[in-house]
Amino acid sequence: MTAARRVIIAITGASGAVYGIRALEMLRQSDDVETHLVISTSAKITIGLETDMTVAEVEALADTVYGSRDIAATISSGSVRTAGMLVAPCSIKTLSAIATSHSADLISRAADVTLKERRPLVLMVRETPFHRGHLRLMDQAAEAGAVIYPPVPAFYNRPATIDDLVDHSVGRALETFGVDIGSVKRWQGG
Questions:
Q1: Using CA atoms in the order 131, 17, 48, 67, what is the torsion angle rounded to 10 degrees?
Q2: Would you place residue 181 in the very low, low, confident or very high pLDDT band (cuts 50, 70, 90)?
Q3: Is the pTM above the cut of 0.85?
Q4: Are 69 and 49 in contact (CB under 8 A)?
Q5: Phi-psi category of residue 127: left, alpha or beta, with phi > 0 → left and psi -120 to 50 → alpha
Q6: Which strand (E) or helix (H) includes residue 87?
Q7: What average pLDDT does the segment 108-134 reach?
Q8: SS3 breakdown of the chain: % helix, strand, coil, rounded to 5?
């Protein structure tokens, strides 16, 4: 496995744990991708509330799993080469930590390292509506190099199920890391 295909997935406590879970499932289909997973304490609760999976089942989808307080984990160092990091979903609390470089846990530290190393950091911010403080934080994160990617559904592909909506958003987000799952329906014009 080449280091360029190592992708960090972080799942935070915002609603939408399915986005991070689906990213892990999709990446398992790629033999040349190694996943490194961090699940926040709040996300562990959200996984139980929103899905039929246990935290252990979610963790089993990843190649490597870290505790959210393990700031000495390999992914907390820029010397560990990665293709980037996806925070799915990204809570406003996590967005705030990333935007202000407040590395209080492994998710915000790994995100900060991803930014400082000029690697893609994709934040699937899950909140609505946004107030001006949220918008300022997104602007700060984008200014630092993050890709703000709220999971806004596309309808040109005529989704028939919630899974179709999730798959399209996650598939498009994963393209940021050079991963093409092949299931994303493309706009063909009118």
A1: -100
A2: confident
A3: yes
A4: no
A5: beta
A6: strand 84-90
A7: 97
A8: 40, 15, 45
Helix (H, G, I), strand (E, B) or coil at 123: strand
pLDDT at 3: 44
pLDDT tens for 90-100 read: 999 999 999 99
Those residues whose C-beta lies under 8 Å from the C-beta of residue 162, and which sit 6 or more positions away, are none
How far are the Cα atoms of 128, 145, 161 from residue 27, in angstroms, in the given order?
A: 28, 23, 21
Half-sphere exposure of 28 (CA within 13 A, CB side): 14
- Which strands make up the sheet holding 147-148, listed edge to edge? 64-66, 34-39, 6-11, 84-90, 121-125, 147-148
Q: Which helix (H) or strand (E) holds 39?
A: strand 34-39
- The full 3-state SS of 130-143, as one line of letters, equals CCHHHHHHHHHHHH
Helix (H, G, I), strand (E, B) or coil at 172: helix
Task: Report whether pLDDT(179) > 80.
Answer: yes
For residues 66 and 73, the answer to whether their CB atoms sit within 8 Å is yes
- Summarize the confidence of residues 49-64 as an average pLDDT: 98
Q: Give me the pLDDT at residue 4, please.
A: 43
